[in-house]
Amino acid sequence: MVVATSKWPPQLTESQLDSLSLLATTYALAHGLLYLPPGSQSSSTIPTSAIHAPITLFPTPIPRRLFEQAQKVQSIYNNLYARVALDDAFLDKVMGAVEGVGRVDDFVGRLWAGWKKHPMVQSLHLGLFRSDYLLHEDQSGASTFKQVEFNTISSSFGPLSSQTAKMHRYLLASTGYYGSDPVLNTSNMPVNNTLSGLVEGLVFSHRAYGNESARILFVVQDGERNIFDQRWLEYELLEKHSIRVLRKTLTILGKAATLERDNALYVYSDSDEQPFEISTVYYRAGYTPDDYPTESHYETRFLLNSSRAIQCPSIPLQLAGGKKVQEVLSRPGVLEDFLLNELRGPERFNFQDVEQLRASWMDMWSLDLNGDQGVDDARSQHQNLVLKPQREGGGNNIYKESIPTFLDGLKESEREAWIAMKLIQPPQNIYNWLIRAGGGTTGRVKTDIVSEVGIFGYALFGKDRPIVEEEAGWLVRTKGRESDEGGVAVGFSVLDSIILV
Ligand code: ADP
Ligand code: MG
Ligand code: MG
């Protein structure tokens, strides 16, 4: 299907664009579509100001059939990654520090070794996932969704995406000219319930733990600027479900977290004498080595991971989200084993399910494939490739013409930690207005865009019990075509929503 969007976004006058920009940014400021300003360094200082999150002025056209299909397969992905996380032998082999990537990637190796040394006592795991896709146009001009990656830790921007979709609906409702193109119609603007979807996952976990008065622990980064995206989850937990949250950094938890009888996790709050029992540990930190500046930060993570509190994610579930796992799943027979082997769980899948997932994957291989073959192939195909290490959070990949020089400097022993992935080729000539805070009218630029759609899902699971899982909403991050990377937090992308075409 070709997206007929050469006239996107609708043509408006400069003064209409000015009015819309004012409506959009003031809506964002009034509705918690916010970021802390740059330079908000420490979580110990009390903020007095915020800026609106970077946003598009219009939703971006996405083929309805592809969007609905991506929503539908999320349930298969929820099951798949639960099954990967429950397969210790597979994770040892692929990510471990004796046989796998953990031998050459210090961060992966430490997490794996800590998990082995301090075994888990909680059999349940919670995943709040996000499967990311880009539109891919093949030679015939047909578009499909191709998967960029599958996130199992700190999948962010759910709540802010809900607000962005509402903001675009508000622009449509409040002006006559915004909807001058008939496609801009609420029936083509999918509702975004990601906030309540993600919270539903956390609530299932809290209830499964079995102590209503326990709290949910948010593990956060010091100086986090994306705090409002996290606060929305806290407010919803409190207001709709009467569940209280504690927010702590790993540094603070080094002192504030203790294990009590039966490995129950207790955390001291600043203002209370008594520590609180924790039902669920939700990580919005811990996915990068920067979050572990000292040995004791790792020890703290292992203490939490070995407690009775349900981990979102547990270390095995975090490891399951590695790019290396994504590549290994694409090898012949591996996906079939996870989905079709009846010993893996009571949920049943068929070949069609396998085919649907596989059809959304680009070619991938490990750089240590068959001696030098992995590197040789990457060198000869570099114009059409991205190389990825086992890292999250953006800014870690090597693209196209940077690849040969990078490979020149890559030690043979380090090849195993990298995968090569064919570049997805998004359709061209789709434009949108991107608005970033602080730029006045120069903060508004019209640019040729690439939009990455993320489908959220949650899964609460353990060995030998039925999984509780659901598709849980969506997000669109839009960047200028000239940037290889995505990522709102790292400044490349802006938040967007969907117009179904
Ligand atoms: P991270 O975990 O750091 O977010 P990603 O795999 O999502 O890593 O890569 C970061 C960004 O790089 C993506 O948001 C996307 O913009 C771009 N990217 C990644 N893989 C591809 C690909 N195969 N084709 C085109 N762009 C890609
Ligand atoms: Mg990503
Ligand atoms: Mg990621």
List low-pLDDT spans: none
Bound ligand species: adenosine-5'-diphosphate, magnesium ion
Q: State the domain count.
A: 2
Overall shape: globular
Pathway: Sulfur metabolism; glutathione biosynthesis; glutathione from L-cysteine and L-glutamate: step 2/2
Binding site for ATP: 149, 323, 388-397, 399, 421-424, 452, 479, 485
Binding site for substrate: 130, 153-156, 224-226, 230, 284-287, 477, 488-489
GO molecular function: ATP binding; glutathione binding; glutathione synthase activity; magnesium ion binding
Describe the structure.
Mg(2+) binds at residues 149, 151, 392. This protein is an alpha+beta fold. The protein folds into two domains: 14-362 and 424-500, no CATH class; 363-423, Glutathione synthase lid domain (Dna Ligase, domain 1, 2-Layer Sandwich), CATH 3.30.1490.50. It contains 15 helices and 21 strands. It has helices at residues 14-30, 64-85, 88-95, 106-117, 158-174, 194-209, 227-241, 250-256, 295-305, 315-320, 323-329, 334-340, 351-359, 373-380, 403-409, and strands spanning 34-35, 51-52, 55-56, 60-62, 125-137, 143-151, 215-219, 245-248, 257-259, 265-267, 276-283, 310-312, 364-366, 385-388, 398-399, 419-422, 431-435, 444-461, 468-480, 494-496, 498-500. Strands 3, 5, 6, 17, 18, 19 and 20 form a seven-stranded antiparallel sheet that branches. Strand 18 and strand 19 (468-480) form a beta hairpin. Helix 1 (14-30) packs across helix 5 (158-174) and helix 5 (158-174) runs antiparallel to helix 6 (194-209). The chain is globular and about 65 Å long. It binds adenosine-5'-diphosphate (ADP) and magnesium ion (2 copies). Residues 132, 148-149, 486 line the site of one magnesium ion.
